[in-house]
């Protein structure tokens, strides 16, 4: 096919995605075409007559085929926005979701108070993946420094790359650890978005999740609580006086996680719901 106007390329992308069963085909077409061609949203609107050459059309066509095969848009693009940052993704990392930004929002005031009182705030992000939570916190709060841990070397490489991409490498350290096994010292904020889906449910998830997010970032064991048990067991020994533990949870796990944490010397100080009104964030302090 010879060169074609952007408006035609976008319309064809939208048509193919819709025919392929993609629910929000218009939005995803804009994301894919704009991301692949490096066009800002305004250019997508005003540049309809811009001619897209055959090579770029082929790139778009290949990406559309991948999306119809249920690969998520941001995985196709290789990066996604998160709380004002741009994060690279890899096969070893969970794709950060907007609901996780709520955890960041609730912890920013805590980090700011700690910096105001102590001059700094040490943050430990367990199961850091892309580094999303930790990097967003230290970017938002000058004086905060972070350590991200993960059992996956590939995830740690991605987190380090994201720290560099967002000019945060001087305040971020990534290290391999199975929860607290390689962690020493105390932190003002311990935070985690751990695997919390029951093993039996993982294979029932949407293809976009179960085929493209790493299973170990999803599977929380038989009852979905394995990671929370490990965190509850080790958190108090690594929490600085006046510090907090912030956790993302599944929609039906508030009571169970609260009981696990209370049994290990914590009290619930704040809870927050996600964009759909479900329980999603719990913040604990020592008793």
Automatic annotation (TrEMBL):
Domain Methyltransferase small: 119-201
Entries under PROSITE patterns matching the protein: N6_MTASE
UniProt-listed CDD domains: AdoMet_MTases
Domain annotation Release factor glutamine methyltransferase N-terminal: ranges: 8-78
UniProt cross-references to InterPro entries, sorted A to Z: DNA_methylase_N6_adenine_CS, HemK-like, N5-glutamine_MTase, PrmC_N, RF_methyltr_PrmC, SAM-dependent_MTases_sf, Small_mtfrase_dom
A Pfam family it matches: PrmC_N
Enzyme class, broadest EC rank: transferase
Function description: Methylates the class 1 translation termination release factors RF1/PrfA and RF2/PrfB on the glutamine residue of the universally conserved GGQ motif.
This protein's UniProt keywords: Methyltransferase, S-adenosyl-L-methionine, Transferase
Coiled coil: none
Record: residues binding substrate: 193-196
This enzyme's EC code(s): 2.1.1.297
Record-listed S-adenosyl-L-methionine binding positions: 127-131, 150, 179, 193
Superkingdom of the organism of origin: Bacteria
Name assigned to this protein: Release factor glutamine methyltransferase
Molecular function, one GO term: peptide chain release factor N(5)-glutamine methyltransferase activity
Source organism of this protein record: Rhizobium subbaraonis
GO terms under biological process: methylation
Family named by the database record: Belongs to the protein N5-glutamine methyltransferase family. PrmC subfamily.
Swiss-Prot/TrEMBL catalytic activity: L-glutaminyl-[peptide chain release factor] + S-adenosyl-L-methionine = N(5)-methyl-L-glutaminyl-[peptide chain release factor] + S-adenosyl-L-homocysteine + H(+)
């Amino acid at each position: 096919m010879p060169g074609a106007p952007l408006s035609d390329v976008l319309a064809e992308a939208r048509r193919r995605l819709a025919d392929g069963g993609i629910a929000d085909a218009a939005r995803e077409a804009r994301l894919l075409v704009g991301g692949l061609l490096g066009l800002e949203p305004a250019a997508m609107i005003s540049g309809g007559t811009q001619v897209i050459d055959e090579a770029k059309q082929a790139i778009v066509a290949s990406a559309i085929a991948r999306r119809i095969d249920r690969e998520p848009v941001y995985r196709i693009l290789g990066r996604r926005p998160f709380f004002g940052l741009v994060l690279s993704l890899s096969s070893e990392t969970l794709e950060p979701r907007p609901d996780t930004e709520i955890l960041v929002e609730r912890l920013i005031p805590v980090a700011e108070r700690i910096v105001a009182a102590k001059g700094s705030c040490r943050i430990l992000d367990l199961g850091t993946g892309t580094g999303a939570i930790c990097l967003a916190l230290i970017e938002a709060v000058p004086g905060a420094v972070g350590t991200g841990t993960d059992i996956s070397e590939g995830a740690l490489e991605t987190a380090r790359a994201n720290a560099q991409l967002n000019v945060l490498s001087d305040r971020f350290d990534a290290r391999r650890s199975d929860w607290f096994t390689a962690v020493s010292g105390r932190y003002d904020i311990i935070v985690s978005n751990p695997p919390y889906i029951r093993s039996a449910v993982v294979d029932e998830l949407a293809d976009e999740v179960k085929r493209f997010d790493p299973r170990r970032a999803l599977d929380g064991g038989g009852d979905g609580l394995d990671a929370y048990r490990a965190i509850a067991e080790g958190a108090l020994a690594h929490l600085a006086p006046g510090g907090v533990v912030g956790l993302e949870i599944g929609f039906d796990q508030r009571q169970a996680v609260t009981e696990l944490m209370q049994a290990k010397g914590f009290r619930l100080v704040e809870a927050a719901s996600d964009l759909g009104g479900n329980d999603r964030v719990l913040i604990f302090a020592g008793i």
